[in-house]
């Protein structure tokens, strides 16, 4: 059973460019979240997608956008890249179980995409 | 609103010694609590979680944590450190219910070093 997969592994961009990161959730999972982890920090929540809709968003500007496809995979897009966008971007998936509280099921994380903005 | 504080950004222990990593949380509603481990250049792996029931939670690799509501704490322990435990550890919280339950709020992490 494949876990959460992300591509690419590493990416180097220059300021002002746009980037797209991809994530495939763990088999059977229907919800995908994206996190940004700056060097030496804990992950910060960007947004979560469920049923192809953005359900919650963290404190990130509109330059960060996403999409979820019918097969539950997801993309994270970042426009007008800044130096401060350099970070490890983590994708996490889980399943929302009917009858369970929303926060009950743990999130499974992928290995991340390391983005460097020069 | 919720927040997580991890005391000590870096903890060093000798191999075979007790590991204690501290986590305190602030949450306006009853939370679910998690500990994740991150090895260099890897994603996060779940060590253990507290949802409801027994307040002493056992996880993988010999780790356990105790939920103390009165102290708003969820400290992680392991009786005897192994060299392979060297990694960064993150405490995280999510509300039991409500819109905030979609996200995990993480602490800044504690880097554990194990000295031979």
Q: Any descriptors?
A:
heterodimer, A: 118 residues, 48% strand, B: 116 residues, mainly beta, 4-stranded antiparallel β-sheet
Can you tell me about this structure?
The complex is a heterodimer of chains A (118) and B (116). Chain A has strands spanning 5-7, 10-13, 19-24, 31-37, 44-50, 53-57, 64-68, 74-78, 87-94, 108-109, 113-117. Chain A has 118 residues and is mainly beta. In chain A, strands 2, 4, 5, 6, 9, 10 and 11 form a seven-stranded mixed β-sheet that branches. A four-stranded antiparallel β-sheet of chain A has the order 1-3-8-7, with no helix packed on it. The radius of gyration of chain A is 14 Å and the shape is globular. The model of chain A has no long low-confidence stretch (mean pLDDT 93). Chain B has 116 residues and is mainly β. Chain B is 0% helix and 53% strand. Chain B is built from no helices and twelve strands. Chain B has strands at 2-5, 10-14, 19-21, 24-27, 31-38, 44-50, 56-58, 64-68, 73-78, 87-95, 105-106, 110-115. In chain B, strand 8 (64-68) and strand 9 form a beta hairpin. Chain B is globular. Chain B starts with a strand and ends with a strand. The model of chain B has no long low-confidence stretch (mean pLDDT 92). Chains A and B meet through strand 4, strand 5 and strand 10 of A and strand 5, strand 6, strand 10 and strand 11 of B.
Question: Can you summarize this structure?
Answer:
With 118 residues, chain A is mainly β. Chain A contains no helices and eleven strands.
Which helices and strands, and how do they pair?
The complex is a heterodimer of chains A (118) and B (116).
Chain A: E1 5-7, E2 10-13, E3 19-24, E4 31-37, E5 44-50, E6 53-57, E7 64-68, E8 74-78, E9 87-94, E10 108-109, E11 113-117
Parallel strand pairs in A: 2-11
Antiparallel strand pairs in A: 1-3, 3-8, 4-5, 4-9, 5-6, 7-8, 9-10, 9-11
Chain B: E1 2-5, E2 10-14, E3 19-21, E4 24-27, E5 31-38, E6 44-50, E7 56-58, E8 64-68, E9 73-78, E10 87-95, E11 105-106, E12 110-115
